[in-house]
Design goal:
This protein is an all-alpha fold and 213 residues long. 57% of the residues lie in helices and 0% in strands. The protein is built from twelve helices and no strands. The relative contact order is 0.15.
């Protein structure tokens, strides 16, 4: 199916599968700081929980200058019940202070610099680059990793391997939109357990390689 990636992307774009409120919110931010802190909230937390928690967080602060003045207790209460909410509250306030004090109030626009923040990995850094700065990067979460392996487009063992495999193989024009497309497809059709293959718009291109845990 290697040569079918153009058809796969076009088909998923035309399928117009329903997006979660959180995915819509992230796509509309266009602000690297908001993308960064919302992505941190989303780690190990489902979108249904992350979306209202993000809105509550933004009522407290929307810039690093504002956030560094928020108490950890207040932020933790606002983002509860996202996973590891106390740790995330401290993490967000800490990186907000660093952005103000070390980066003159601006989120760094490089993956290497972003990954220097405590708790920020390549998935988050790549998403900030794509949604926050509009720069080509490949954000690989569990959906992107799972679906590309099921399709047979790549054969990798973990999300980091998937990112670099896609950097070598996926046309650059798809780097920015691919995460949103695959997350939406993964949430609606290509689920981890019991994927809806009979109703899949890209089934004809899929090798149906089911990943084992």
């Amino acid at each position: 199916m290697t040569g079918s990636i153009d058809k796969i992307v076009k088909t998923l774009e035309n399928a117009k599968q329903p997006q979660s409120d959180f995915v819509k919110l992230m796509d509309n931010f266009k602000d690297p700081y908001l993308v960064l802190i919302a992505c941190i909230l989303s780690l190990r937390t489902n979108d249904r929980t992350t979306y209202p928690a993000t809105l509550r967080m933004l009522r407290l602060a929307k810039t690093p200058q504002e956030m560094m003045k928020v108490s950890e207790d207040d932020l933790a209460k606002a983002i509860y019940p996202v996973g590891f909410y106390k740790n995330k509250a401290g993490q967000i306030i800490e990186l907000s202070k660093l952005i103000v004090e070390k980066y003159n109030g601006k989120v760094p626009d490089s993956i290497d610099e972003l990954c220097k923040f405590r708790g920020v990995g390549r998935k988050t850094a790549n998403l900030v680059m794509t949604l926050g700065f509009g720069e080509p990067a490949i954000c690989v979460d569990v959906h992107v990793h799972r679906i590309f392996n099921r399709l047979g487009y790549i054969k990798t063992k973990n999300p980091e391997e998937t990112e670099f495999a896609l950097r070598d193989k996926l046309p650059v024009k798809y780097w920015i939109p691919i995460n949103t497309l695959m997350v939406t497809h993964g949430q609606n059709v290509c689920k981890p357990i019991n994927p809806k293959c009979d109703n899949c718009p890209i089934a004809e291109f899929c090798d149906k390689i089911i990943l084992k845990k």
